[in-house]
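Re: How this chain folds, sequence and tokenised backbone to follow
How to read it: Take the token row as a discrete description of the fold.
Start of record: The labelled sequence and token lines come straight after this line.
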Amino acid sequence: MENKSGSSLPPHDESGQVTRGQRPADIFLRRRIFLPVRLQKVLGVSGLFSAAYGDVGSSIYYALGVVAMSALGLTPPVLMVSGILFLFTALSYAEGATALPEAGGSGAFARRAFNDWISFIASWVLLMDYMVTMSISAFSAANYMGFFFPVLKAWPNDSIAGIGIIVILAVINIRGVRESSRLNIALVIADIITEVMIAILGAFLIINFPTLIQNIHWGEAPTMNDLLFGISISMVAYTGIETVANLGSETKNPGKSIPRAVMLVFATVIILYAFLSMTALSAYPVHQLADGQWVTDLTQKFLEDPVMGIASAMPGLIPYFLSGWVALLAVTILIIATNAGMLGASRLAYFMGQRQQLPEFFSRIGAKGRTPYNAILIFSAIAAVLVSTGKVTLLADLYAFGAMLAYTSAHASIIALRIKEPNLPRPFKIPLNIRVRNREIPLTAVLGGLATASTWFITVYTHHFGRIVGFAWVAIGLTIYFLYRRAKKRAAAKSAGISQKA
């Protein structure tokens, strides 16, 4: 619709102000043209829970085997200790995400508490983690599909299928977060029902506490180095809290929705991990090979699909019916994890672009789907490349490097904000505080920060691949950051010079 001047815009004067006599439709059109497109607040507790559980709940399908390979008989207690650290971290993210409900997670916390380049490092390593989550989940989903289509059990067919999963999810996410959230919720419900069923069957039919005790050979199986390795890599079993924080800007009533979603995720996964890990180590006891090596058949036969190993260990005809269902649900929950990683990476990149930590190209929002489509496309492409490696253990190493660094930053940021901004509105406040110089310091953040920092150092010491690639990724990121900031300063100085001449 054109006005008298032939323009398609609503009537306005030379200053850009809307003139009198325009119709409501003209006002709407003008707003559509001139107002920036923003992310929609459409997520509630169920949407946040499904996004976080997509990361956390999915990891049991590959993390159980990876952890058991090193921790052996101590796998159940190692996962429980990791669960406590997860709870402490979850509390820090709940307070930070409700006080600063915007995309960015620990990067947003660090920017407010410290400075921009520390914020960038925290955000940059998390981008790496999100891409690792996408790649490891999509690749594992493809391998579980191999139960139905054996051709997918061999490379490169499994990688091709994993790339296909990423492409499909990228299209869904570009259409809008509401669509991807609905997909998550439906798949999460089916998966939780299945995992609860396996846990109940395991508790009644397989779990044997004398066997679990006999699995532990102190100082020998596992050795101290293997135990430290297992503790550090077990962090891959508890991912997803960053996803909740990054979706804070798209959450309805974040002050209530975020803490509820976080605590619901913790309660769900800690119970399931306890029962499933005890079932697995009861079904496949630790034993010593002829060469003296201590192993469990869980990792010898089912390293890449440990939950399938649990289903196969059930007595009678149960495996005949359960194995196919487990494979189907493993595929669905791993697709959820891929989707959650995509949500996290795109929203984090959006935050970094908005804060001029990355080029503005990453923060562009589609007018229709209102999602950061450029970020979705770029990081989905990188994750698709990572899928081709097919090395679950190496990807887990890389994840642990980034996650522990980011989680330590989150704990430190919450403590710093308590000191610097005691009056900052906090819809949710961590309980169990100690008073230091008239400031309330959350005890869980202190303990959690010390634990995650120690775990990061263990990861750097014990994980060769994670150490090399992790530090290389940080170096590349800082180079991009400082070059981009320098270019922005030069552009600003040039613009100022031209303005003065004029």
